[in-house]
Every structure is written in structure tokens, then in C-alpha cells.
Amino acid sequence: MRYKKVSIAFTLILFTFLVGTSYSFYRPPHNLKVLPQDITHERLDSIMGAFNKALGVKCNFCHAKGKGSERLDFASDENPAKEVARNMLRMTIDINKNYFRTDSVIHPAYLNTVTCNTCHKGDAYPGQ
């Protein structure tokens, strides 16, 4: 009987933890100004990962820490590099849309003919 109670308690704790963490890891993105508002978490994460790789940087290159926190505030515009990144994204979207777009159904932000890596090749400041 005692084993059954411990087992049930453990299962409830584990379930609560798993449900709680699965929701806490995903927060809908806020303050998107170039990327589509309905972007999925997976696609946003993939795009950000491509930025990291193309520029050879980590998330804190564009994203500022939250006030009084060590965690990054992804919605914040405190870091000026974030606006530079937005402008660079607008430029690549424009190039792909006007010169390489082949499918009108795909949002231009998702086209990958010209990417950050085209120029950056792992360097945050190419050509310097």
C-alpha cells in the first residue's frame, strides 16, 4: 500500500513538472517587426540559430539582458545590434523577393537563396 502511494505521488509530481516545463519553455514571441507574427517556435528558433552560425555569435550579440536579470529579454530593443539585424533581414528579404522569389506562397522571410551566411561566412563584421 505504501509503495502504491509513493508511486502515485511520484507520478503526479513528474507529470506536474513535465507539463509545467513544457509550457514554460515556449512563450509566444513578442515585438516581431520583420518576421511573421504567426511564426512557429521551431521556425523562429531555426532562423535565430542560422543567424548565430552565419555571424559566429551567440544570442546576446543582439539580445539584451532583462533589467535586474541575467536572462536575455528577447523582446527588448535595448541592444542597437538588434535593429541592425532587422535591417539586414529586410535587405535579404528584399533581395530574395525581387531577384530570386519563385514561390508566391512562401513568405519572403523563409526564402534562403541569399542568406546572412552569403556575406558573413561566420564573421559578425564581414569585410573589416
Describe the overall structure.
GO terms for molecular function: electron transfer activity; heme binding; iron ion binding. InterPro entries: Multihaem_cyt_PRC_cyt_su-like, Multihaem_cyt_sf, Photosyn_RC_cyt_c-su. Pfam families: CytoC_RC. Keywords: Electron transport, Heme, Iron, Metal-binding, Photosynthesis, Transport. It comes from Niabella drilacis (strain DSM 25811 / CCM 8410 / CCUG 62505 / LMG 26954 / E90). The chain contains four helices and no strands. With 128 residues, the protein is an all-alpha fold. The chain is elongated, with a radius of gyration of 20 Å. The protein has a domain at 40-128.
**Radius of gyration, CA atoms, in whole angstroms:** 20 Å
| Helix share bin | 40-55%
Q: Helix- and strand-based class?
A: mainly alpha
Fraction in beta strands? under 5%
Low-confidence stretches: none
Number of helices: 4
Mean pLDDT: 84
Report the principal-axis shape.
Answer: elongated
String of helices and strands:
HHHH
First-last Cα distance? 71 Å
Please tally the β strands and state the result.
Answer: 0
Largest sheet: none
Function: The reaction center of purple bacteria contains a tightly bound cytochrome molecule which re-reduces the photo oxidized primary electron donor.
Keywords: Electron transport, Heme, Iron, Metal-binding, Photosynthesis, Transport
InterPro entries: Multihaem_cyt_PRC_cyt_su-like, Multihaem_cyt_sf, Photosyn_RC_cyt_c-su
Organism: Niabella drilacis (strain DSM 25811 / CCM 8410 / CCUG 62505 / LMG 26954 / E90)
